[in-house]
Design goal:
By secondary structure, the protein is α+β, with helices and mostly antiparallel strands. The chain is built from seven helices and 15 strands. The strands form three sheets. The chain has an eight-stranded mixed sheet, sandwiched between helices. The chain has a five-stranded mixed sheet with strand order 12-11-13-15-14, sandwiched between helices. The radius of gyration is 18 Å and the shape is globular.
Length: about 270
């Protein structure tokens, strides 16, 4: 049975994701510029990332003033309720900067350290994904009504379509490219979409068989990880670990374990 609090948390998450997605889609200036950089000169933040995070935190704070926040663009408060919101206001900033459609708004709610609600809005697709722990994963889009999500049946690994992403630090991305080079002959193919949250939702929706990436943060995978798991996807890090910044791995049952083991053998992780 779904905890009533979790259902209550879903509502502001959906509203905030919808409103932030509309702001980002309709309010993108023609002369959009980089506001600052993060890990490297090509790891960018735009004024719209900052505006979207403020919209989300302001909206949720009005409804739940005692909750904490962890946001990619700097929102960090402890809160006193036991609930913390983990927010990526614009996952896929470089795509957004260039006018590519694969970007998203990702909002997760944690209760006592466990993710219990996840919402990912993908405005340029007109799709929104959501999950409440124990209640399945769902999506709205061009189809009528809400659609329950179930991951694909697992193919043999050599027929698996797997997505990944690359870091913005040169030394790290060079190593990631070497791992991808070794993986490609063992899979159907590799995709690189540019938004971890979208990749995890695509896995939940049956559009991919697997996904992995090194160097993600909690806001990158928080909502998408829950949505994927509620759709039957297995997720983790290195063997025996949960997803973490060292390595995030996700796959349909039958793909997850062999993919995870290959990544372990190839040293795809970092401490």
């Amino acid at each position: 049975m779904t905890d009533p609090l979790h259902a209550e948390l879903l509502r502001p998450a959906q509203e905030a994701a919808r409103r932030a997605g509309t702001l980002l889609r309709d309010g993108r200036p023609a002369d959009l510029a980089v506001a600052r950089t993060k890990s490297s000169p090509i790891d960018v933040v735009t004024e719209m990332d900052i505006a979207a995070e403020k919209l989300i935190t302001d909206l949720i704070s009005e409804q739940r003033p005692d909750d904490g926040f962890l946001g990619e663009e700097g929102a960090s408060t402890e809160g006193t309720s036991g609930v913390r919101w983990v927010i990526d206001p614009l996952d896929g900033t470089v795509n957004y900067l260039y006018g590519l459609p694969t970007w998203s708004v990702s909002i997760a709610a944690e209760q006592d350290g466990e993710t219990v609600v996840g919402v990912v809005a993908v405005p340029m697709r007109g799709e929104t994904y959501h999950a409440v722990r124990g209640a399945g994963a769902w999506a709205t889009g061009a189809w009528e009504g809400e659609r329950a999500l179930t991951c694909r049946p697992a193919p043999p690994l050599e027929q698996a379509l797997v997505s990944t992403g690359f870091n913005y630090v040169t030394e790290v991305r060079t190593h990631q490219a070497d791992v991808a080079r070794r993986l490609i002959p063992l899979l159907r193919d590799i995709r690189r979409g540019g938004s971890a949250a979208v990749d995890l939702c695509d896995l939940a929706a049956g559009r991919l068989d697997g996904y992995y990436e090194r160097g993600l943060n909690a806001w990158d995978y928080g909502a998408g990880d829950l949505i994927a798991r509620e759709a039957g996807v297995l997720t983790g890090g290195r063997p025996g670990e949960r997803p973490n910044p060292g390595l995030t791995v996700a796959g349909t049952p039958g793909v997850f374990e062999p993919l995870q083991q290959l990544l372990e053998d190839f040293g795809a992780w970092h401490d």
